[in-house]
Design brief:
three-stranded parallel beta sheet, elongated
């Protein structure tokens, strides 16, 4: 909003070299009581297009938005996705040097989003500047050349996209861990044992948050034991970011004992088969049965799998095609 000159900075200054087309908030520059047709001319005028220019570009705007059948409906009757289609279709016709895009695109359907990203690619080839504000980590890694991670108004990191995503994921993990620990309920037994540290490591023993399909993933867990306890059972589960349960195991199933161990405990997911996506770990310590939870962390760590695996779905399964015998 500072770049769009909606807000003035309390200190410092922003220098913009060229014309800027902001697309940062749904409904800005629209009048809900007017038809889509009228709003095209209204919004285009706000972006600096003359009436003649808008008339020349009108069909392009309508075709891109795919809203020709709704041109004479009032905008207040449009869904949020339809409004995004219209607003974006107008903004890309402004022929600005800089396109400022906020996460408002997220309300559009996936097909339209892909059309938008094709426009991004085209504009990048033309040498235009695109400022994309988003939490969609895969999209950031795919389209951005440089990333700024901002937390509560302060610049936390600026640099290469993969590293910026890693910094963001590290921060999110620590924040989620603190929140989960403060909210968890363990029926008064949490003082017996505590999940103190959970680390996600690469095969070299260094902390890591981004892996490839087929790469080993090590989980290191340190427990804080305040009393000698029998029947401990440590469980680790993997969930996809949308809540899909991918895999889970525990020391009882695997017949592994670690009673009262104060050393770090390690679990290796060998040659992980997970396909591209964002994932998180759930770690829990159970007592005599899986109903007695001694400690629980609903988001003990997050990691990302890049799309190096072949196939679709949740995971890569080793497979081969067998050609039929030709008896002719």
């Amino acid at each position: 909003k500072i770049l769009a000159q909606i807000y003035q900075p309390t200190s410092g200054k922003v220098t913009i070299n060229g014309t800027l087309s902001p697309f940062i908030e749904l409904g800005v520059g629209f009048n809900p009581e007017l038809t889509a047709r009228d709003n095209i001319f209204l919004n285009a005028a706000i972006l600096g297009l003359t009436k003649k220019q808008t008339e020349e570009k009108f069909n392009q705007i309508v075709e891109f938005s795919e809203l020709r059948n709704f041109l004479d409906q009032k905008l207040k009757n449009f869904s949020s996705g339809m409004q995004v289609r219209l607003a974006f279709s107008i903004s890309i016709q402004a022929d600005s040097d800089i396109l400022l895009i906020d996460e408002v695109l997220a309300v559009g359907d996936s097909t339209f989003q892909q059309k938008c990203f094709e426009v991004f690619r085209s504009l990048k080839k033309q040498g235009k500047t695109i400022i994309f504000v988003s939490h969609a980590l895969e999209t950031i890694q795919e389209f951005c050349d440089r990333v700024a991670f901002i937390n509560k108004g302060k610049l936390t990191f600026t640099g290469e996209p993969n590293q910026a995503v890693l910094e963001y994921m590290k921060f999110s993990t620590e924040e989620e861990k603190a929140k989960a620990y403060s909210e968890k309920k363990t029926d008064g037994k949490k003082n017996l044992v505590r999940i103190k540290v959970v680390k996600i490591l690469g095969i070299d023993g260094m902390e890591k948050s981004i892996f490839s399909t087929g790469e080993d993933i090590d989980i290191e867990i340190i427990l804080e034991l305040n009393k000698k306890i029998d029947y401990e059972n440590l469980g680790v589960s993997i969930y996809r970011n949308d809540g899909t349960y991918c895999f889970g195991t525990n020391t009882f199933i695997d017949k592994v004992k670690f009673h009262n161990s104060k050393s770090p405990l390690k679990l290796r997911f060998k040659s992980n088969p997970l396909l591209a996506g964002d994932y998180y770990l759930v770690v829990a310590v159970f007592g005599k049965n899986d109903k007695e939870i001694l400690d629980f962390n609903g988001k003990a760590g997050v990691f990302k799998i890049l799309g190096s695996g072949l196939g679709e779905g949740l995971m890569q399964i080793e497979h081969s095609w067998i050609r039929p015998t030709n008896n002719e």
